[in-house]
Amino acid sequence: MENLALIAQVQGYTAIALGLIIGLGAIGACIGIGIMGSKFLEAAARQPELIPTLQGRMFLLAGLIDAAFLIGVALAMFFAFANPLLARFG
Amino acid sequence: MASEATLSSTEYISHHLTHETVGQGFWTWNVDSLFMSGLLGVVTIALFYSVARKATSGVPGRWQAFVEMVVEFIDTTVKEVFHLDRGFLAPLALTIFVWVFLMNAMDLLPVDLPPTIAGWFGFNHWRAVPTADANTTFAMSLTVLIVVLFYSVKAKGAGGYAHELFTAPFGSNPLLWIPNFVLNVVELLSKPVSLAMRLFGNMYAGELVFMLIALLGASVFTLTVGSAAGFVGQLAMGAAWSIFHILIITLQAFIFMVLTVVYAAMATEHH
Prior knowledge:
The complex is a heterodimer.
Chain A: H1 2-46, H2 51-81
Chain B: H1 2-16, E1 21-22, E2 29-30, H2 31-53, H3 62-81, H4 89-105, H5 113-120, H6 134-167, H7 177-216, H8 225-267
């Protein structure tokens, strides 16, 4: 019974951590994409002839910005489905 | 019924996240990742080889036009970043791009198809996406590290590179040798780690979302309104996520390739 309470506690804290990982990561990634997208549109409006060059770089950077967030999501998913912190309780 | 369903869904996910392995401890071989990546490598080579054999200077066929497009795209990308002789780096970049793209593209197969096919041959588990296995991505990024070291030594000589490792950012005062070296080692090691984790994280998260979507329609055979809604939701979300994922897999393959070239170009710069 005590074990059950401990497991519930670990699961509860893990759930909070998952929310923080995904939520904070999403905030960062969205702000980053937003800043980059606005700058891209600004630059495209000023010099439309640069759009093809800038577009490739924008997608590259979008991937880089998203990467840290998606690594966080992957870690969070891993903890959601196979929580190694619970392994101790058998 | 509800609790039974959630239990089995957790089991479903963790079953899909288990590798088919041979061996113990450090010498555990992930058979599925090895087989799939090897198979896709062979597919890549065979495709490009057959196209190259049949290449004509006349009107190109569809495949030849496609391969020429890919090769030209990679070559211009490498040319923009890397200014020395790219006789080795451009083919390497092409290999990385096509291979990683094909490995990522295994994500678009239905999540239950590869395990079912593998089940006919007596395998209990089968993960079809080699790049959703950290071992594969780290193997590739460590190879990139070797390439970076090779280009560093080639551009500066072994002595010159050692000199740079100890004196590069701060200066050549003997007191600064240790901080310089530590900083350089951290910089060098952060490259393969970030490369591998980026690709692995993207593919792992994508695969998991596909599994979660697959769970939506799991109870379709109970023939209730809820299960039907779940099935429709699975179709809609699966389609949406697949289309979005086409962008992600291409982007990640491209990023892996471009960063390899960028790292090699950085390695050849003199300080």
